[in-house]
Design goal:
The chain has 346 residues and is mainly beta. The chain has helices at residues 184-190, 192-197, 329-340; strands at residues 26-28, 39-43, 46-50, 54-60, 71-79, 89-94, 97-105, 108-112, 117-120, 125-129, 134-140, 147-155, 166-170, 177-180, 201-206, 208-209, 212-213, 224-230, 235-239, 245-251, 260-262, 269-271, 275-279, 291-295, 304-311, 319-321, 324-326. The chain starts with 25 loop residues before the first strand and ends in a 6-residue tail after the last helix. Residues 6-14 have low confidence and may be disordered.
Amino acid sequence: MNTENPSAPAAPTAALPPAFRAGSPRRVAPLRIGRSRRVEQQVAGQATSDGDGVRLTRILTQPLQRRLDPFLMLDAFGSDAAGDYIGGFPDHPHRGFETVTVMLAGRMRHRDSVGNEGLLEPGSIQWMTAGRGLIHSEMPEQTEGRMAGFQLWVNLAAADKMQPPAYRDLPAEQVPLLRLQASEAGQAGEGAADAAQDGVALRLLAGSSHGVAGAVLRPVTEPLVIDALIPPGRALELPLPPGHNAFVQVFAEPGFGSAVDIGSADAPTRVALDRMALLANPRAGDAEPDGVRVAVPATADAPARVLIVAGRPLGEPVVQYGPFVMNSTDQIRQAIADFQTGRLAR
């Protein structure tokens, strides 16, 4: 099923989401993959609430932690009703992992026990390393309007769990923005796969792609986190490290959102809006370059927006108790005791 149309026009700049209008995009040539990973499983997520009654959808849950190692959790939140988010996330502890918050709409203020403070606005990201422990809050700085975004939890290796906490707050302008541009030969029909990628836009939240370093680079787990906007009739080919676990979250925001086809051009899997596609790992001995192909049907009414996430698995025991993620039950008991006695955030 070939769903792309190389002659389809790219979305005009004025029609792009705010995050894709921040700064000047770097034009880069499309990359090619030898084959695409297939969709192993689709996940719809579970409606729940957290913090002080914030309504959200928990997409990556504990049963998937081993399969998607080093990723521990993915939450999506999005509502135009202030009652769904106004309570925010008052002071709460963390130990043993990192949180990545991606804001799509609205304003949220971060404060923590280490003295860090930052304002998350549309297109910005927050990368917080809880390490040995901190207490922080994430509270709305608005009383009406839309609030939307994602939070991803990334595990830390056993040797790194007790490192000092750290925090980075990156506005949209500091997130590298790429726009794929086919060569004149490709646009003329001599490279159909390249032409099909023309006009695709990528925000490099973490990791590197197309020879460009993302906003955040992390050792050990080497996470790749990309916010991609793919116009109707286009197909992104994105190389992925063969040893990384990976998934694609298909999401919608006002004016943007479409089902996508993931996998090889001749036998893709249709993934609906608000679904996570868990990507199959390459088979042992595969010699071809590894990656993922995400295509948007030419008949789609709007560009698709997807979050592509990959990371190197740690292969270590994971023991989670609420906001603490360690490697053993004894370490969890210690984290609870440290929190109860006021030692966790020292």
